[in-house]
Amino acid sequence: MLQNIFDIYRCVTAGNSTFTLLNTDKDSRITLKFKRTRKNRDNINEPIFVSVLNGSDNNSDYQFIGTIFNNSDGFKYKHSPKTSIGSESISAKSAKWMVNKINSGQNMPDNVEFYHSGNCAKCGRKLTTPESIKNGLGPICFNR
Question: How many domains does the chain have?
Fold first, then answer.
């Protein structure tokens, strides 16, 4: 579980991040995938495509909901008009909230827990060392 906003920022913007937000007050969770194209994964200014887990297969049941752009004001979430998931849905609001939380630099509130998938948020390889599991990035990707 990550709570420090800098660690979460690094994980979310790495280019291939899957994570779950758990609201302990409501006992609800949502799994989001933030992904850049493979060729632009290292470019912080490239858009990040946001998808939400929308089925029982946690490898393939993701639905695109919007895009995150990086500009001079920080990161901005733009909901896609092409998705069947509404902009007022919990998933869209959660993605927007996550982006606003990163822009504000404030740590997660006590009732929200951030869990990465156990894979490197940049290259997608399974994490095996305790330090990598702790921060969500493998040692090579962490040093880039």
Answer: 1
The rounded Cα 139 to chain-centroid distance in angstroms is 19
Contacts of 66 (CB under 8 A, 6+ apart): 50, 77, 78, 79, 80, 83, 92, 95
Contacts of 140 (CB under 8 A, 6+ apart): 123
Range of the domain at 63: 5-142
Name residues whose C-beta falls within 8 Å of residue 54's C-beta, 6 or more positions apart in sequence: 61, 62, 63, 85, 91
- Tell me what the mean pLDDT of segment 48-70 comes to: 93
What pLDDT does residue 59 have?
84
* Segment 8-29, tens digit of pLDDT: 998 888 889 999 999 999 999 9
